[in-house]
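Last lecture ended with a question: if I hand you only a sequence, what can you say about the shape of the protein? Today we answer it with a concrete record. The protein is Aspartate/glutamate racemase family protein. Below, first the input exactly as provided, then the predicted structure, then a couple of comments.
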Amino acid sequence: MRLLVVNPNISDDVTELIRAEAMRSVAPTTELLVRTAARGVEYIETRFEALLAAEAVAEVIAEHRDVDGVVVAAFGDPGMPALKELVSVPVIGITEAALCAAALQGQRFSIIAISDRITAWYRECVEHFGFGNRLASIRSIKEALRGIGSVQEDFRAPLVELARRAVAEDGADVVILAGAPLAGLARDVMAEIPVPVVDGIGAGIRFAEAVVGLASGPHRAGSFAVPPPKRRGGLSPALESALDAAQTAGSTR
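The predicted structure:
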């Protein structure tokens, strides 16, 4: 099995955090291809930034179609679920994977975020994926970040304290450490938090492997079928090729 893991942020140091946790999570027989978005922002906090990231992720997917599955490795799942229409392989976002993992382990969960600005968008994502009634709270860091690659080092203790308060005060049965900059932190702090702690990268990798392994087949019809042929303009050669291939394959099924 070969998985494409895309960092929708342009931060190479975050990509290395993603790569490290993905390597710890993946099965020995799975090959990983880890890539960083070519354009966008350092880290995504807002709906507009997610919009910018979505096209960049689509470009990466279009350039690497010879994979068995794709993991979109930023909390908030920029471009999802629309990216499922681009290719015939499973495309898994770490938010949806983390929410599913949390729901399987407890009745209510809390999300711990690295930015207060990001919480409104995260709440909308939870509602979109149908888990709104399972959300106990979203707690976040209030201080400015020194650097996106050093969040774990700079805010380890506050993040643990936020998680503990989510359990004690909000009734969380599970805690999700949200965002690729926190990749791998769950392994380090789970002994300090009295409920299961979910890492989005680990959840995304393991769920992608599971869905690929199910071999359920592609979307041939319905809302996730490939976009219908029509006149296009201004797209990159990679996206043009990906759409042409998808539409040709769809017409022959």
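Comments.
1. DSSP finds eight helices and eight strands in the chain.
2. Residues 114 and 232 are 39 Å apart (CA to CA).
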